[in-house]
Amino acid sequence: EPFTSNVKAAISDDVAQIASSDPRVNVEQVNITEQEYGIMLELTLVYVGTDQSEFMKFEFDKTLGKANATV
């Protein structure tokens, strides 16, 4: 499926909805970037009631059918 702005928005909405289902965190930022063989998803969460945040990066490779995560 082509990586259109609608696909990007749908992925971003899904990620935000899933992450916000945990009441301990707020979604601060979701970035999605198309790469040569897939997509990269960057997510920043802030823990509620603190000033602590967590940055996560996920790379999805459609040719290998796998994902890598960096936290």
What would you note in describing this structure?
By secondary structure, the protein is an alpha+beta fold. It is 21% helix and 49% strand. A four-stranded antiparallel beta sheet has the order 1-2-3-4, covered by helices on one side. Strand 1 (25-35) and strand 2 form a beta hairpin. It is globular. It starts with a helix and ends with a strand.
Q: How do the SSEs run, as a string of H and E? A: HEEEE
> Helical region count?
1
The secondary structure category is alpha+beta
Uncertain ranges = none
The count of strands amounts to: 4
- End-to-end gap: 28 Å
Radius of gyration: 13 Å
Summarize the structure.
The chain is of the alpha+beta class.
Provide tags for this entry:
globular; 49% strand; 21% helix; single chain; 71 residues; four-stranded antiparallel sheet; alpha+beta; 4 strands
